[in-house]
Amino acid sequence: MLEFDGLVKTYGDNRVLQGVGFTVAPGQMFGFCGSNGAGKTTTMRIAMGLARADAGEVRWRGTALDDASRQRIGYMPEERGLYPKMKVADQLTYFARLHGAGSADADRAVQEWTERLGLADKRGERVEKLSLGNQQRVQLAAALVSGPEVLILDEPFSGLDPVGVDSLADALLERCRAGVPVVFSSHQLDLVERLCDAVGILARGRIVASGTVPELRRREGGRQLRVVVPDAGPGWADGVPGVRVVSEQRGDTVLELDPATDDQAVLAAALRTGRVTHFARREPSLVELFREAVAA
Amino acid sequence: MSAAGQVRLVARREITTRVRDKGFIISSLVIVLLVVGVMIFQLVAGGRTSTTTIGVVGGNPSVETALQQAGEASGTAVTVTELPDEAAARQAVSDGDVDGAVLDPVGDSPQLLVESSGSVDDIVRSAVGALSVGAQLAAQGVDLQPAPNVSVTELDPSDEDDGPAVVVALVGVVVLYGLLILFGQFVAQGVVEEKSSRVVELLLSTMKPWQLLAGKILGLGVLGLAQMVLIAVVGVTGALALGVVSVPGQLIGTVLVVIGWFLVGYAFYASVFAAAASLVSRQEDLGSVLTPTTLLLVVGFFISIQAGQDPGSGLATVTSFVPGLTPLVMPVRMAAGDVPLWQVLLAVAIMAVAIALVVRVGGRVYAGALLRTGGKTKLREALTAERA
Asked: Where is the ABC transporter domain positioned along the sequence (chain A) (predicted)?
C-alpha cells in the first residue's frame, strides 16, 4: 500500500495542504484531480522528498519513505527536466543507475523502454534536438527505466498527442497490472475516468472525494434522474415534491431527488404530461462529479 | 544504492560528458600547446648568447686565439674570419658580415674598422695588447708558462639558485590560475544547467543536494587534476629535454607543490562557485554572481606575479595566509625558498578551515536555492529556505 497520511503544508500564510490523505493499493491506478493550485504537485513533491511536510507522512509498505525507498519510485516532475545536451540513451542509463540499477540491467531497460515508447531510432540523439512530444516520452522513460515499485507522475499526459497518450496509457496500465501502484495527476478528467480504478479530488487543501468512479457516482450523483418528456411544457416538474430541477431543455430534464423521494412518484408525474421516452438514473461524468466536489 | 554510490555516478557523468565535449578537448590541447610554446620561446630567447664576428687582415694564427680569449673575458663568443685586404674588410663591415675588422693586428699600427664604436673595440684592444706583450716578452727570450689555475673553495656554499624555481612556480601559478577559473566555470555552468533545464528536480528525487554537489565537484576535480598533471608532465619533460631547466629535482619539487596547491584552491573555489551559481537559473545571470569570487582569483594572481619579483615582501607574506589567495601566492614564496615549514602548515590549516566553512555554508546555500527556479535567489533566502 502506498499511503498518503495527513499531509499538512503551509507556505507563509498559504495553507496549501490541510491533512491530505489517501491510499493506493498495489495494482491500482489512482487519478489525482484538483483545480490549479489545489496542491497536487506539492503532495507529490512531498512524497518525493522535494518538499518537507509540516505534518503527516507518506508510507510505502508500511514504512515512511526515505532516500533509499524513494530510489524505487519512478517520478515524473511537473517541471519537466532532462539534460538538454545529453544523448537519450546515455541520459536514460544515467537515471536508471541513479535509481540503483546495475550497468547491464540499466542498458537492457533502456533498450526495452525506448523500443516501447517509440524512441528506438532516437537513442543517439541529444534531447534538445527532439520534438517536445518525444522529449515527453524520454521523460516518461526516465521514470520507467529503473523498473520502479511505485509510479508517481505529475501531469504525465499534458502535451502529448493522442497517439502519445495511448502509448503512455498502455505503458501505465501494463505496469499497473504488474502490481505497481500508479498515482498520476491530470486535468484531463475523461482520461482519468477511462484509466483509473480510483480517483481522489483535492480541493481547499483536502481530499474532498475519493474512491472508485462508481462509488463516487453513487455517493454524489446517485439521486439524479434523466427524464425525457417531449410533450411536457416548461416547468412540468416544478410541482413534484422532493425534486429539484437541475436542467431542462425542451422536455429533456435532469432532476435531483431528495433521499426520501420515491422515483416512481416522479415517473407518475412525468406520465401525466404525456409520453415518456426516457426515464433512467443518470450517471454523472467525472467532470460533473469534480465540479460538484470542488464547489461543495 | 549507497550515498557514495550516487556521488560516484554523478562524478562519472561529469567526467564522461566533459571528455566528450569538443570545446573541452580543444581548450585542453591549447593549454598544452601553450606550455610547449612558452618553453620553446624560453629556449630560443635564452639560447641567444651573444656572438661577435671579427674580420682579420694579415697577422698570424695566434691572433684568432687572442681574440677568442679576449671575447670570452667579456662574455662573447668570437668568430674570426680571414679577409684578403682593406677593401674587402671595409666591404664586410659595411655589409654587416662582420662586427669589426682588424687590419695588421700584430704590426706597429693596427687599425680597427667598425660601423660605430662598441664592445668590439675592447675585445680587439685587449687582444692586440696581449699579442704585443707576448711578442715583446718572446723577443726578450722569456719563455711563457701558462698561468696556474685558481682552485675555488666555497666557505658558505649557497643553495641551488632559486631563480629558475621561481620562474617554474610562476608558470605553474599561471596554469593553476587558468585551470581554477576554467574548472570553477565548469562547476558553475553545470549547476546552472541543471537548474535551468529543471533536471535537478528529477535528480533530487534520487539523492540529497550534497551528493549532487560532491559528485560534481569531485568529478570535475579529478578531470582538473588530470589536466594539471598532464600539463606538468609535458612541461617537465619538455623543460628537461630542451634543457630549459638544469635542476630536475628542484623543478619536479616545485611542480608537485603547485599541483598540491591546485587541489586546495580547487576545493575552495569550486565550492564557492557552485554555491554562487545555484542562486541563479539562467546562464546569462552567472556572470553577476561569479564576479566577486573571480575578482579574488585575479587579485591573488597579480599578487603572486608581484611575489615572483619580491618573494620576501610584506604583501606576499601576509596574503599567503589569506584564504583564497594562499594557493596562488604560497607556491611562489615556497619556490623562492624562504618559507619556514610552520608557515606552510599554518597556511594549509587556514585554507582547510576556510574550505570546511565554504563547503558547509555553500552546501546550505546550494541546497536551499536549488529548487527555486526562476529569477535570482537572494543569499539570505537560500540560507533560510527549506532544504530538500
From this structure: 2-229
**CATH number, domain A221-295, options 3.30.70, 2.10.260, 3.40.30, 3.40.50:** 3.30.70
pLDDT grade for B154, boundaries at 50, 70 and 90: low
User: Grid coordinates 695588447 are at which residue?
Assistant: B129
**Cα of A206 to nearest chain B Cα, Å:** 23
Last residue of a domain, which of B135, B170, B200?
Answer: B135
Out of A280-289, B58-67, B118-127, B176-185, give the one with best mean pLDDT: B176-185
For the structural domain made of A2-212, what CATH number should be given?
A: 3.40.50.300
B11: buried, middle or exposed (CB in 10 Å: 19+, 13-18, 0-12)?
A: buried
Alpha-carbon separation of residue A192 from A133, A198, B364 (angstroms): 20, 9, 40
Domain tally, chain B: 2
Say what the pTM is.
0.75
Chain B's closest residue to A127, CA to CA, is B197
Residue B155 domain flag: no
Give me the sign of the Cα torsion angle B372, A134, A156, A110.
Answer: negative
Alpha helices in chain B (DSSP H): 3-19, 22-47, 61-73, 86-95, 119-139, 163-196, 199-204, 209-241, 248-277, 286-309, 314-319, 326-336, 341-369, 379-384
Task: Judge whether A279 is closer than 8 Å to chain B, CB to CB.
Answer: no
A72-128 residue pLDDT tens: 999 998 878 899 999 999 999 999 999 988 899 999 999 999 998 889 999 999 999
Residue range B15-19: mean pLDDT, rounded: 91
Burial class of residue A27 (count of CB atoms within 10 Å of its CB; 0-12, 13-18, 19+) = middle
Domain assignment present for residue B12? The answer is: yes
A207 close to A179: Cβ distance less than 8 angstroms:
no
Shared domain for B84 and B215, answered yes or no, is: no
What's the rounded Cα separation, in Å, for the pair B26 and A59?
A: 50
| pLDDT band, very low/low/confident/very high, at B312 (cuts 50, 70, 90) | confident
Give the pLDDT confidence score for residue A94 in this predicted structure.
95
Q: If you average pLDDT over residues B4-26, what whole number do you get?
A: 90
- Put simply, whether B203 touches A (Cβ < 8 Å) is yes
Residue B179 lies in a domain: yes
Contact B205/A142, CB-based, under 8 Å? no
Per the CB < 8 Å rule, is A77 touching B208? no
- Give chain A's count of helices (H) and strands (E): 10, 14
Print the domain residue range for B251: 3-43+162-387
In terms of pLDDT, which residue wins out, B163 or A63? A63
